[in-house]
Amino acid sequence: MIHKNYKNITEFNQDQNLPEPENPLFMVGHLKLGADEIKKISPSKKSISYNSQFYVISLKKIVSGEIIYGRTKYDCSTGSMLFWAPNQTLITKDIAITSEVWHIAFHDDFIRGLDIRKKIKNYNFFNYYVNEALHLSPKEEETIKSIFKNIYNEYHNNQDEFSKDIIISQLETLLKYSDRFYKRQFINRQTINKELFTKFKEILNAYFESNRFEEEGIPSVEWIANELGVSYRYMSDTIKAETGKTAIDQINLFLIEEAKNLLLKENVPISETAYKLGFKYPQYFSRLFKKKTGLSPKEYIESVSAN
User: Fold this and answer.
1) Residue predicted with more confidence, 136 or 103
2) Which fold has domain 191-306?
């Protein structure tokens, strides 16, 4: 595998056959190749991992090959958006060339002190381990492309005191539309969502059956996500799209269902149930149980026994 680590935007532009950036902290670039030019370029037969010290947003149309986000492979024959934050990794394999590419790259210093810096941390797609590309419909692609063009024109046309504000405003619009289209994609990928949620439950069941709750404690969402080969934010977003609840909610629901079974065993103290489910302190277990069921563990036992 070939490894590429871009320390600055100039290195990124050189590798992508783009001109040197006019601003060392921000650039927007556009490449468009004709059919004859594409045919002259052979696919790379090796996997390439990309890492950068800055944010990158790309809109691409892949002629052939595959893009791997995490452990998932995608056919990117339609327009696809790729997002990665500083120190995230993108892996490509056998990519021929794209007929058209848009890139935006910007350092954290470019947005430091601005509202967008706070907002960008709420866009989970920058923290998916680059695990889920955004695949656009033709109409969505035109919308995104028009925003790239607006930023490109402002960047290249005699920048003045208003230019950065206009660029930041357009960048915020780009991120908002991307978020909207991601939400649509989660809805449309229900089969994949169900598969991930099924594996999520299987991991919890196996963890419980092997007594790891009692021995190692309640597993974190980060640990489960690692077992699934995705980032914890992507896992939580997928599960929420599928069930309406976060991964943490689902872990708690699993604990409550197992607790109901354990509490009904004869001569088993409530504290033992708490420890078996990974709680260090029984009072924390009792608090969660009452919050989720409306009854304390003792009241639950009494209510079932009365029936």
Assistant:
1) 103
2) Arc Repressor Mutant, subunit A (1.10.10)
Per DSSP, 295 falls in state: S
Burial class (CB in 10 A: 0-12, 13-18, 19+), 135: buried
Q: At 103, phi and psi to the nearest 5? A: -130, 140
Q: What is the dihedral of CA 260, 262, 265, 266, to 10 degrees?
A: -100
Q: Tell me, what amino acid is at 121?
A: K
Comparing CA positions, the residue from 267, 230, 223, 273 lying closest to residue 248 is: 223
2-188: which CATH number, 3.40.50.300, 2.60.120.280, 2.30.29.30, 1.20.1250.20? 2.60.120.280
Res 62: pLDDT: 58
Cα 238 to Cα 167: distance, rounded to the nearest angstrom: 31
CA atoms within 13 A on the CB side of 71: 8
Global pTM value: 0.63
pLDDT for 124 equals 75
For residues 84-116, one letter each, b for 16 or more C-beta atoms within 10 angstroms of the residue's C-beta and e for the rest, the string is: bbeebebbbbebebbbebbbbbbbeebbeeeee
Distances (CA, A) of 81 to 96, 132, 235: 17, 10, 19
Q: Are 82 and 16 in contact (CB under 8 A)?
A: no
Per residue in 195-204, pLDDT tens?
Answer: 888 899 999 9
Alpha-helix residue ranges (DSSP H) falling in the chain: 9-15, 35-39, 108-111, 115-120, 138-156, 163-188, 190-209, 212-216, 221-228, 232-243, 247-263, 270-276, 282-293, 297-306
**pLDDT of 13 above 70:** yes
